[in-house]
Design brief:
six-stranded antiparallel β-sheet; 244 residues; Trna Endonuclease, Chain: A, domain 1; 2 domains; alpha+beta; OB fold (Dihydrolipoamide Acetyltransferase, E2P); 43% strand
């Protein structure tokens, strides 16, 4: 099932290689299939548990912008037979395009979508939906999910995220004030059937998620179909809030 009518496409044809190592959070040394050794930008500040595996097959995009320090960007890794995008900014684009195309049923009926709107004490919500047929606005936070330590199970986060917990507190306040508050998890892989918070990696986040749901925050989780040219929102996953 393919929902998204406007998929997130990679910026250029991808080149394949092998990961040598990921380091300093934003750098990755890679040997391309033709033998060229490169350093690519890694747009993922997290731990990348389970996806930054030395020797794994990876794909990079190539950029001609002379202002960039690095012409290559690490885009995909293959784990087993599954392609996984590593760029944590992808889900915001995927979510925006999917909502705009009307393919997330829970978030249809709005007339306007705004990005990065200030709210709460010191936060910016990823998407603010307003107008249309809906009688109240919807504040939507989006989180990237790539961790899977158990067959069929997607998990978030892959390391401690105080920022993620803060966003849940902000959403809880939004719900208390009478607006819709939505936590949307986008799983950038296609081999999972359900989602659960990784309470063993960040118990504070798992507790904050439980509390947010009790406070009226809605939770949604969708996976993606991933190819060498695009990432497409695919189907909803079952959400299990029980602690690991």
């Amino acid at each position: 099932m393919r929902f998204n009518k406007q998929p997130m496409r990679f910026p250029s044809p991808l080149r394949r290689g092998r990961l040598v190592k990921r380091y300093k959070r934003f750098l990755a040394d890679i040997v391309l299939d033709d033998g060229e050794a490169i350093t690519a930008h890694c747009a993922n500040p997290g731990s990348m548990m389970g996806v930054a595996i030395e020797g794994a097959r990876v794909w990079v995009s190539v950029h001609n912008n002379k202002k960039r320090k690095l012409p290559y960007s690490w885009e995909l890794v293959e784990i087993g037979k599954t392609l996984i995008p590593i760029n944590t900014s992808n889900p915001n684009k995927i979510g925006f395009e999917a909502i705009e195309a009307g393919v997330i049923p829970e978030l249809t009926g709005y007339g306007e979508i705004r990005r990065e709107v200030k709210y709460g004490e010191a936060s910016r919500v990823d998407l603010l939906l307003d107008g249309g047929r809906r009688d109240k606005p919807s504040y939507v936070e989006i989180k990237n999910v790539h961790l899977s330590r158990e067959p069929g199970l997607a998990e978030f986060p892959d390391s401690v995220t105080a920022r993620g917990a803060r966003h849940l507190h902000e959403l809880s306040r939004v719900a208390a004030d009478g607006a819709r508050a939505v936590m949307l998890f986008i799983v950038q892989r296609s081999d999972c059937r359900r989602f659960r918070p990784a309470a063993d990696l960040d118990p504070a986040y798992a507790e904050a998620l439980q509390n947010a749901v009790s406070a009226g925050v809605e939770t949604l989780c969708y996976d993606c179909e991933v190819t060498l040219s695009e990432v497409v929102l695919r189907k909803p996953l079952e959400i299990d809030l029980k602690a690991r």
